[in-house]
TrEMBL record:
Top enzyme category: transferase
Sequence segments annotated as region (Disordered): 317-365
Pfam families listed in its UniProt record: Pkinase (PF00069)
Protein name, entry field: non-specific serine/threonine protein kinase
Ranges that cross the membrane: 289-311
Annotated positions binding ATP: K46
Domain Protein kinase: 17-276
Matches recorded under Gene3D superfamilies: Phosphorylase Kinase, domain 1, Transferase(Phosphotransferase) domain 1
Segments of skewed composition (Low complexity): 320-331, 339-351
Amino acid sequence: MTGTETMDEGRLIAGRYRLERRLGGGAMGVVWLAKDELLDRTVALKQLLLTVGLSKKDAEEARKRSSREARLAARLQHRHAITVFDVADDEDGMPVLVLEYLPSQSLAEVLAARGPLPPSEVARIGAHAASALAAAHAAGIVHRDVKPGNILLSEDGTAKITDFGISRAADDGTLTGSGRFAGTPAFLSPEAARGEKPTAASDVFSLGATLYAIVEGRFPYGENENQMALLYAAAAGRFAPPKQAGPLTAPLERMMRFAPEERPSMAEVAAELEQLATPAEEKRRRGGALIWSGAGAAVLVAAAVTALLLVNKGSDGQNAAPPASVSQQPPTSAPQPAPSSTSSQAPSSSAVPPPAPPPPATTDPAQFVRDYYAMMPGGTAVGWTKLSPAMQERVGHDYYLRYWGGMSKFEVTTAPHQTGPNTVESELEFVQNGRHFHELHRLSLITVNGQLLIDSDSV
């Protein structure tokens, strides 16, 4: 039965999924709208297809490997990725993916219907897709087939990426036959086109090529229908510079650099695209908040430095001057009134008392997370120090600031509670960049030098 569509309308899969109508299909599978009769919800089912002519042994290996890849994809939970709810088997033993159903159009369909999209809209779509891909990369998952057909755009403008893991099975010869490469030539990175193993940097290039096509209205490697010609062009990394991308031009060129190590990380891409997609008025509002937050932090730093100077009487102070940004008034030589017990003058900076010592660090994971969320979204200066070095490296400071800075409402709806030795879960409700979210967050904690730190945050 390999290579053929074996499911039909009304059929019951795995004893619970009732097929309603076919939504579409391609070389790697057929997608159906279905009803989960156990949970009474609408889902999408993707039946994976094998290539005609595989031997019995190869077909069996194909089933096993594609099932493993599908289950790997099911580990990713992100608001901008189509969720894999379940992996069932059809009557032939082939895995059937049970997916979140999103009423939507693919970017390929949007481009065909509307033509090129404006740079600001492309930046917003790209930021959504990049955030999901960054989460996948952090989990060790490389998509391998980022293209307009695999990014869905819902009615409210939310973008979600789909088909994680499927192209990897194809690359291993399980779905499309031995000797074929994974991905679509028009959006392949040079190294993938040359047959090298795709990496996270390859996904960065492919997302850049996808956004290039959406904003320019043409493929990066030209409109040649000859797939081998496209493959050669991709291997050489030859593409015409974008002409309609406007502020997206520089980010796209960085994402599509020939050498993988010269491309930004996907997390950096997400942060930059989100910045480009943010309206100017909102940027000004966020900027003002950050300035005040930064000024407050600078004052605290200045006070702490002064306290150290008072304690260390042997220091001349020349290497511990407060930051220039704290001193707003030019020095004056005018005589100052002598201090007295009735003077209304504010004390000089040299007389600022040392700050109160911080409370001892809690060793209770749930309390630690409660304290962390209690200072958000405005307490990013301190919040950043609550992340482990590995988490800081994965997230990036700029993205961290933009993530929390984009929130106009933040509420913990289910109090943090410990679910494992180093795991705390809580439900959050927030409005970010004008969109409402309700999410279950699972934080993993580690202890460094006697202090708890957040090492991962999964949704």
